[in-house]
């Protein structure tokens, strides 16, 4: 029961975001009611031919892309979040502590590097905490927990980290397994439904039988995230799940954890996603710093569309598409570009033309 005017007043003191485009409704939005997200993306300085662009965008619209979890699911540093998730599921708490706190290669904020070095040298939570001006990061929270509960009670120390952040680690491990298994599934059986695959009837997963297989396409096929409440494909990939978890010292038939929060029930996820409302155009431009479309904020502020030259020396691909919840625009873009979209790879690209 807050008025639009009162919300709009907040814009005077908000940092880095704006509120607007308000409307009044009789019913509140609830969790789970998100239909999806609509993206407008500009890929600048493209070099492909118009035919290659048309082909890539038609393929995105008609066939779709492999519904991988995006790289952001696995963190941006040298220790991927799924490794911490795996250690939690293995009940290996000293490994959890080490993975979060030990020094790691790659670019990190200076104070974090100093904090990790101190930890490696002294294993003293108080001394390592002194090196951290920002105490709300995961490292700071874990060190505070170790200070409070002692080094012999890592489970309680880890519990100081907010629940969502803790669960993020084990969800990352599930995503890691899913990505690997989907690659194997497509490598083995291609882009068609085969007997033994899984499909959803309502919310229930059922196996696709031999006599039924012609009634399904690859767009009907789902794969499980490992857990105690899912079934697995009846073909080779079902075995591959077990083998991957055995290699990680985990039992696929026992995904319940003695700490209830870390018990995984599992879920199902479509292996191919076809985006909706796919549109694109190639535009020419000269100045690499001018905007090539109006953002929601521009629209709120009534800014006009940028005027672009017809024969600029650079070309950009403007693309729009809608995706259901929990699918990644980065993975759709990766399909169009046919290139690695991980942060590590992207930061190594030559962007001197932008300077």
TrEMBL record:
It comes from Columbina picui. One of its GO terms (biological process) is tRNA processing. It catalyses: a uridine in mRNA = a pseudouridine in mRNA; a uridine in tRNA = a pseudouridine in tRNA. Keywords: Isomerase, tRNA processing. SUPFAM superfamilies: Pseudouridine synthase. Belongs to the pseudouridine synthase TruD family. This is PUS7 synthase. It comes from the Eukaryota. One of its GO terms (molecular function) is pseudouridine synthase activity. Residues 64-274 form the TRUD domain. The gene is Pus7_1.
């Amino acid at each position: 029961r807050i008025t639009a005017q009162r919300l709009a007043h907040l814009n005077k003191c908000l940092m880095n975001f704006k509120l607007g485009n308000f409307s009044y409704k009789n019913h509140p939005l609830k969790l789970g009611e998100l239909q999806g997200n609509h993206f407008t993306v500009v890929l600048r300085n493209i070099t492909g031919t118009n035919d290659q662009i048309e082909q890539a965008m038609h393929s995105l619209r008609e066939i779709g892309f492999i519904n991988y979890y995006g790289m952001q699911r696995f963190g941006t540093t040298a220790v991927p979040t799924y490794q911490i998730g795996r250690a939690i599921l293995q009940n290996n708490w000293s490994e959890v502590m080490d993975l979060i706190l030990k020094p790691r290669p790659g670019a990190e904020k200076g104070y974090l590097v100093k904090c990790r070095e101190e930890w490696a040298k002294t294993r003293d939570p108080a001394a390592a905490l002194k090196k951290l001006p920002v105490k709300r990061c995961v490292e700071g929270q874990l060190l505070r927990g170790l200070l409070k509960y002692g080094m012999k009670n890592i489970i309680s120390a880890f519990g100081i980290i907010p629940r969502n952040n803790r669960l993020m680690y084990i969800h990352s491990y599930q995503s890691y397994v899913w990505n690997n298994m989907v690659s194997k599934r497509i490598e083995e059986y291609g882009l068609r439904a085969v007997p033994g695959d899984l499909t959803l009837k309502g919310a229930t997963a059922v196996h696709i039988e031999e006599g039924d297989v012609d009634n399904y396409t690859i767009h009907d096929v789902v794969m499980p995230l490992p857990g105690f409440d899912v079934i697995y494909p009846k073909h080779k990939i079902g075995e591959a799940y077990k083998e991957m978890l055995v290699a990680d010292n985990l039992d696929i038939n026992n995904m319940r954890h003695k700490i209830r929060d870390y018990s995984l029930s599992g879920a199902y996820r479509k292996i191919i996603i076809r985006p909706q409302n796919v549109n694109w155009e190639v535009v020419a431009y000269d100045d690499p710093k001018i905007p090539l479309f109006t953002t929601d904020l521009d629209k709120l502020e009534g800014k006009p569309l940028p005027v672009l030259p017809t024969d600029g020396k650079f070309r950009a691909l403007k693309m729009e598409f809608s995706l259901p919840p929990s699918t990644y625009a980065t993975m759709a873009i990766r399909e169009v570009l046919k290139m690695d979209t991980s942060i590590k790879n992207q930061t190594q690209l030559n962007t001197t033309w932008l300077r």
